[in-house]
Design goal:
Helices cover about 65% and strands about 5% of the residues. The chain is mainly alpha-helical and about 220 residues long. The chain starts with a helix and ends with a helix.
Length: about 220
């Protein structure tokens, strides 16, 4: 995902820093949204100030206004999955990054989420993934929500990735995982049930990490 994850995460893993502080501060005054100070973001994330400078330059290049809306997010994300339909997954991913629920992602929103996904603990990553699956944000994942996300991932990966799918594979996938997660059989999965199930089942954990791979 060019701007919003692939390019930026690649920049954080490769270490090519441009550390001209004066230029960075000047650039921040020229966009319509000025992000929080790098020192504050450094304290709030698992990135160094140098890494934040690199991330900010990339974000500004793709989003000169300092914010990205959902349509732009979808357009950029779709370029990296030409054999599938990434629009639905990108919609849910956008909502997960849009923590302010205002229809846009600022640099702070982006970098906080990226910090969790790239540098967070296993628990942090699982909590973030849980909130992605919790589409209606009621604090639970129901079977329909999980099916929506899994189906969106299959659609995004496309027929070239899964050429031999037969039947309703996403639903079968969900049924298996949901049975393991819903310990008390009340029809919904809580955060604790989700975390415990993933930590106890290596296959389930690997499947949830597919989420990181499609970033």
């Amino acid at each position: 995902m060019g701007m919003v994850l692939g390019t930026f995460s690649m920049h954080t893993k490769q270490v090519t820093y441009r550390t001209d502080k004066v230029d960075d501060e000047l650039e921040m005054t020229m966009v319509s949204h000025r992000p929080e100070g790098l020192e504050q973001l450094e304290a709030q994330t698992n990135f160094t100030k140098q890494e934040l400078q690199v991330l900010y330059r990339g974000f500004k290049n793709e989003c000169p206004s300092g914010v990205v809306n959902e349509e732009t997010f979808k357009h950029i994300y779709a370029q990296f999955f030409p054999h599938g339909d990434a629009s639905t997954y990108a919609h849910y991913l956008f909502n997960a990054f849009d923590t302010r629920n205002n229809g846009s992602i600022k640099f702070e929103d982006f970098v906080m989420g990226l910090s969790t996904l790239l540098r967070g603990t296993v628990r942090d990553k699982l909590e973030w993934t849980f909130h992605l699956y919790d589409i209606n944000r009621d604090g639970f994942i129901n079977r329909e929500e999980m099916t929506e996300i899994v189906r969106a991932i299959y659609d995004m990966m496309g027929k070239y990735t899964y050429p031999a799918l037969k039947g309703d594979v996403p639903k079968q996938h969900v049924d298996t995982f949901f049975e393991k997660m819903d310990k008390n059989k009340d029809g919904v999965v809580t955060l604790e049930e989700f975390v415990i199930a993933c930590q106890e089942d290596e296959n389930m954990m690997r499947s949830m990490q597919l989420f990181e791979n499609v970033m």
